[in-house]
Every structure is written in C-alpha cells, then in structure tokens.
C-alpha cells in the first residue's frame, strides 16, 4: 500500500551513505525523545538521512514530525516523512522503510529506542574508508542496554572495556549476535551489497514478526566482514513488547525464517537457535512471568515451543523449567543454567573477552 503523504527536506539525488529509518505508531512522546537524542549527532554527518514512517498514528505524531522536520532542515539534516493512509501492520511498515531507504547502509530503529549521544560517531568510521568511500562491511552489530525511565542514569558500558571487534568468520558473527539478529535497532546492514546478492524480497516475510531477518541473514550467508560495536550505542526501552505470541514468533517463525534464510548452513543457524534456547528464552520467560504480562500469550508458549524445539535437548534443560516450574524455583534454577550458558559461550569465543588492538 502506498503512503498517504510523503515529504522530503532535500533535493539531493546523491545516494546517502546511511539511512536511519524509524517506523512509528502512536508513540509521539517516545518519538520525540528518539529524535531529540539523535538530532545533535546528525549535524556532523550530512551523508546520513533520517526516514520516519508513520503507520497512520492517531496521536500527535504528525505534529511532532512536522516540527522536527522544520528543525532538522534548519540544520541541513535530511529528514523524510511518510505517512500511511491506514495502519498496514508493523511488518509491512518495516518493509516499507527498507524499500524507501536510499542509503547504501540501512539501520532500522524502533521508535522507543535511542541512539545514545556518541552512538553515531561509533558507527560512522566503519561505514567508509579513509577516502570517504563506502566500506566493504556487510553487517554492524550495535550492542545495547535496557532502560525504563532515564537512559542516561541507567547507562551501561561494556564490562571488558572493548570498543569494537572486526569479524571475518560468519560463524563467529552468528555466535556473537545470536538472537539479537531479531532486535531491529541492533543491526546495520549493507543494503547496497544485499541488492547485488540473490535474496527474497522482505515482503515475503510479512506476518512472521521477524521481517528484519530478511535483510540481515542473507549478508551473513554471503559474509565478508562485520563489525561489533561493544560500547552499547543503543538504549532499548523495556516493557513495550506486546500483542504477539512469544512462543509462536520465537518458536515456529524464528526457526522457520532462520533455516529458510540460511539454507544448508547449520553452522550458522544452530548458534542462533541454540543460544535462544539456552539463554534468551529462560531470561525473557522469567521476566514475562514476573511481570504478569498476558499479552505475550505464555499459556500458548509450551505447545508452540515444544512443536518446534521438542527434539532439541536445550529446550528441556534450559527453557522448559523457566516456563513451567514454580517461579521461585525457576528463578534459582535459571541462575545456575545462565552461568553454564555463559561458560559455553565464552569457550566458543575465547578471543572476544579482550580489547581489540
């Protein structure tokens, strides 16, 4: 579906180096915060465009964007706005952002997440060489930290003092990023390179709640070089997830999309799925159970996850207890298995616990 309205503050036809795309719906206040934190960072980078795709918000989002566009234009910052005539769903809005983005690199960011001050400065040197030409980086993983109230007061840094690592082995990328391939604000992709590779149109994945995998995993499959930014340039707002089946999306859909996008490469798909079972599911399930969040449909989770992962021992050892045992016992057990999972992770990646020289 075509957007109802489209505006642009730039007449330039040159392809930007980077598009930061923000899909939004009825989160005017969160969007204000995201744009205010990003705005002063953009002044130094005229080769970056910002695209905001409004999914027919009924709140003050149009007014917020009109004011932001005026401010941005006064500083020479490219801000493009599209507004859909009706809500087309989050997946379709993400895909709309991807198709509309003109940048050689593409960074989809949630409207409730923040690129913290200095975050853009961490990223930009990796997207171009010393002569200002686009680099050969396929993926950049921007690590993150969670916050609920004040992203500055709750700021977290890398405990090992790392700045970044360069990865050339795609299996290392799979192990380091793992389930975070699904976090939309955490992956910067080389869209120009992806356009030159055989890949499915992201629209084919609408309805899975994981369309973002469609532009990241093909680059992992045809990998050359990736970067991990360890200084946590993204602050991820906690507590906003709702409206989907956790078991179905991160069971059937995750496994299906990963194997579909990484065909014949269990060396790349297994680290993503196994980490999800060992560490991510136990943590998120306990958080959801403790919060009493019924919108994620935990009552359906066991059936959905067992159907997908029932033949994987990690489901029964790590995930199942966190989902079904009495909450106090599940929390205690998961503390122990989390330490085991961390040891497994560190054993597989022995070189990633020191600063890159």
UniProtKB/TrEMBL annotation:
<feature type="domain" description="Glycosyltransferase 2-like">
    <location>
        <begin position="19"/>
        <end position="155"/>
    </location>
</feature>
<dbReference type="Pfam" id="PF00535">
    <property type="entry name" value="Glycos_transf_2"/>
</dbReference>
<dbReference type="InterPro" id="IPR029044">
    <property type="entry name" value="Nucleotide-diphossugar_trans"/>
</dbReference>
<protein>
    <submittedName>
        <fullName>Glycosyl transferase family 2</fullName>
    </submittedName>
</protein>
<dbReference type="InterPro" id="IPR050834">
    <property type="entry name" value="Glycosyltransf_2"/>
</dbReference>
<keyword id="KW-0808">Transferase</keyword>
<dbReference type="InterPro" id="IPR001173">
    <property type="entry name" value="Glyco_trans_2-like"/>
</dbReference>
<dbReference type="GO" id="GO:0016740">
    <property type="term" value="F:transferase activity"/>
</dbReference>
